[in-house]
Design goal:
The structure is a homodimer. Chain A has five helices and nine strands, in the order ββααβαββββαβαβ. With about 170 residues, chain A is of the alpha/beta class. Chain A has a single domain, classed as Rossmann fold, CATH 3.40.50.2020. In chain A, strand 1 and strand 2 form a beta hairpin. At the A-B interface, helix 2, helix 3 and strand 4 of A face helix 2, helix 3 and strand 4 of B.
Chain lengths: ~170, ~170
């Protein structure tokens, strides 16, 4: 099999000029690669985790497959207005303006040991807001998994109090 | 285990007044239920399928888990502007206005035998547009899987030329 990094396609100027977008869809098309990614995520998930929280929407892809493999519940974090039930919210700063993330009230319980997952670690703002949501629910973030970490954006510094595993670095 | 239907939460007036929203997140929180859903989808996928196409974004959840189980490639269909590479598009009518779906060019090849998956069959417009995308790429839609079908909206009539399996009916 080709190595995982070579299956990530780089697309210049998406979504805007000057951004090198790391496209994971070329990896997802390869069933051996998807299996390898999930196996590596599983290997890097500590024991005793009882809930998986996945960030919309590419985090859902890896999150659902991993939750199935681990035999634990899957809980989505979504952007404002997407979850139908009563939610807990966190608003966080973007480069320009703010964004809000939500989790369903009752989806996590006090004492839950959580693995958080997303496809990409960039500046870390979304992941940090998701950690706050988990903690507001009484859960503890035991591990954060990313397929890709963009090293130059230093997102891991923002998440320094957490245990992070990024499968690929760019 | 409780039956799957009882794990779907019904939320009135979401996303707008008069709609009874069927919330799947309460099912996803239950790992035995997620396993049962994926096993039933697997059982209802014909042999010889070599690609899975999932519709954004709740379709990603079941699609990724099923693609992993089947050992086949995962291909996303997304709303306009979300996929970074060159795409093939289909525009379709909504109650008011139109919507556009996209698939990456090259993600499917002529002769691919495809299973299409989404969480919900309502009027069938999104699924039908996704079938057109698959066929424009030269693939054939061998099966369409839904977790939930809303019977009164008659989406299955719009998809009558396809082989559909809906796990739950409301």
């Amino acid at each position: 099999m080709k190595n995982l990094e070579s299956l990530i396609r780089t697309i210049p100027d998406f979504p805007k000029k000057g951004i090198l977008f790391r496209d994971i869809t070329t990896l997802l098309e390869n069933p051996q690669a998807l299996r390898e990614v999930i196996d590596l995520f599983k290997k890097n998930t500590p024991s005793g985790i009882n809930k998986l929280v996945a960030i919309e929407s590419r985090g859902f892809i890896f999150g659902a497959a991993l939750a199935l493999e681990l035999g634990i519940g899957f809980i989505p974090v979504r952007k404002s207005g997407k979850l139908p039930g009563e939610t807990i919210k966190v608003t966080y700063d973007l480069e320009y303006g703010t964004d809000t993330l939500e989790i369903h009230k009752g989806a996590l319980e006090k004492g839950d040991r959580v693995v958080l997952i997303d496809d990409l670690l960039a500046t870390g703002g979304t992941a940090l807001a998701s950690c706050r949501l988990i903690e507001k629910c009484g859960g503890s973030v035991e591990k954060i998994l990313f397929l890709i970490e963009l090293d130059e954006l230093s997102g891991s510094e923002k998440l320094s109090k957490y245990d992070i595993f990024s499968l690929l670095h760019f």
